[in-house]
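Please fill in the sequence for the structure shown.

STRUCTURE ENCODING:
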C-alpha cells in the first residue's frame, strides 16, 4: 500500500504510541480525581496542554481539549453565537465560506433556526475568500465569522491575518479551523478569537482535539452541553488521558519539525506533480496560483478520465476525490464546484497528499501507476 491520503488522517507516530501506552494500563487514574494517581494523570494532561499551546502560539490556559476538530468547531460557532444572542443587541449575522469543512457549514446553517442569518461567502477560482466580499458582508452587524486557515481538499491557504482583522474591526468574533494547518505550517492567532485543532491530522491519535479560546480580549462562548464543569466549564466530561498525552507528544514533535518538514513535503509534492503532468498532458492543478499547504496536490485528470475509475483500478494507492467526511457521496466535490469547476470537470479530480512517512520511491511508483492507469481509462 502506498498511502497518499495524509489530509484525511495520519498514522500515529511511534513516539506518540509509546507516550500513550502507560496511561492505558499502569497510570489509568481519572485526571480529575484528587488522589495521587489522579494528580499524576492531571499533570500529564497539563504538560500536553502546554505542548499544544506552544504549537499554535497560545497560552496553555487558552486550550480546551475536545473530542476533535468537529466538536471544537461546533462549540466555537454555536457557543459564540449563542453568547452574543444571550447578551442582547442586534448582531445576528454569522458568516462563513462556501469551501469550509462540512461541520462548519452545517453548524452555521443550523443557527438559522435560532434566529441567526447564515451568510455563505463565495470564493474565487483559486478557492480563496475575497477580503472585499467579507468587508461588504460585515456591513450588517455580525456575531461571528468562521473561515478555515487551510482547505482540507485543495490545501489552499486563506489570508487569515487580513480576514480576522476585518472581523475584529467590525466587532465580530473570529473563528478559524486550523485542523489542516496546525503542525504543517506556522500559524498566527493575531485577531483570532477561537481556533480548532485536531490531533489525528498531525500524527496523533483519533478522538481528541482542542479549541483555542482567546483570553485577552476574552472570547465568550456558551457550552454545548452540561456536566461536571471540566475544561473550565467549556467542555464537560472526563478527559481521555492517553489520547491527550498522545496529542501533546504529536504537537511537540510537529513544532520541532516546522523548520524542515514543510520544505521536504513540498519537494515530494512537486516531484509527484511534475511526473503526473509530464505523463498525463492536459492535467490541471487546482489552486496552483495561490499559497497552499506543502503536502497537498488536488488536480484534474485529462478529459475522458474518471477519478473514480482510476481509484478503482489502483486499490493499492490510498487517495481520494475529496474530503473523507463526504467520501460516501457520489456527487462531485462541493469545494471544487464552489471554485467554479463544472461538475464534469470536478468528477475528474483527485486529491493526493504526502506526509512524514512518504518516500521518494513511493512517489516514483505511485506516479508511474497513475499515469499507466489513466492513459488506458
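FILLED IN BY: designer on duty
SEQUENCE:
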Amino acid at each position: 500500500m502506498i498511502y497518499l491520503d495524509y489530509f484525511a488522517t495520519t498514522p500515529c507516530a511511534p513516539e506518540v504510541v509509546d507516550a500513550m501506552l502507560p496511561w492505558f494500563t499502569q497510570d489509568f487514574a481519572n485526571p480529575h480525581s484528587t488522589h495521587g494517581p489522579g494528580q499524576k494523570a492531571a499533570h500529564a494532561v497539563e504538560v500536553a496542554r502546554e505542548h499544544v499551546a506552544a504549537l499554535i502560539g497560545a497560552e496553555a490556559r487558552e486550550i480546551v481539549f475536545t473530542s476533535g476538530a468537529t466538536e471544537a468547531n461546533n462549540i466555537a460557532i454555536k457557543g459564540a453565537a449563542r453568547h452574543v444572542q444571550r447578551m442582547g443587541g442586534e448582531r445576528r449575522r454569522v458568516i462563513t465560506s462556501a469551501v469550509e469543512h462540512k461541520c462548519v457549514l452545517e453548524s452555521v446553517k443550523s443557527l438559522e433556526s435560532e434566529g441567526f442569518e447564515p451568510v455563505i461567502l463565495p470564493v474565487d477560482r483559486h478557492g480563496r475568500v475575497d477580503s472585499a466580499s467579507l468587508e461588504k458582508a460585515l456591513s450588517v452587524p455580525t456575531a461571528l465569522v468562521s473561515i478555515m486557515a487551510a482547505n482540507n481538499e485543495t490545501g489552499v491557504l486563506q489570508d487569515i491575518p487580513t480576514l480576522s482583522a476585518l472581523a475584529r474591526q467590525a466587532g465580530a468574533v473570529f473563528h478559524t479551523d486550523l485542523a489542516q494547518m496546525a503542525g504543517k505550517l506556522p500559524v498566527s492567532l493575531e485577531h483570532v478569537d477561537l481556533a480548532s485543532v485536531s490531533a489525528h491530522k498531525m500524527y496523533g491519535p483519533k478522538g481528541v482535539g482542542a479549541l483555542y479560546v482567546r483570553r485577552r480580549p476574552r472570547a465568550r462562548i456558551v457550552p454545548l452541553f452540561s456536566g461536571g464543569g471540566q475544561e473550565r466549564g467549556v467542555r464537560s466530561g472526563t478527559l481521555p488521558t492517553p489520547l491527550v498525552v498522545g496529542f501533546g507528544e504529536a504537537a511537540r514533535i510537529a513544532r520541532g519539525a516546522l523548520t524542515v518538514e514543510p520544505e521536504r513535503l513540498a519537494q515530494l509534492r512537486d516531484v509527484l506533480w511534475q511526473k503526473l503532468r509530464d505523463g498525463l498532458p492536459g492535467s490541471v492543478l487546482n489552486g496552483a496560483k495561490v499559497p497552499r499547504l506543502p503536502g497537498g496536490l488536488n488536480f484534474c485528470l485529462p478529459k475522458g478520465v474518471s477519478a473514480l475509475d482510476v481509484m478503482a483500478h489502483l486499490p493499492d494507492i490510498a487517495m481520494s476525490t475529496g474530503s473523507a467526511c463526504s467520501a460516501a457521496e457520489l456527487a462531485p466535490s462541493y469545494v471544487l464546484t464552489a471554485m467554479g469547476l463544472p461538475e464534469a470537470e470536478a468528477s475528474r479530480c483527485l486529491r493526493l497528499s504526502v506526509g512524514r512517512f512518504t518516500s521518494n520511491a513511493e512517489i516514483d511508483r505511485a506516479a508511474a501507476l497513475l499515469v499507466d492507469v489513466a492513459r488506458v481509462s
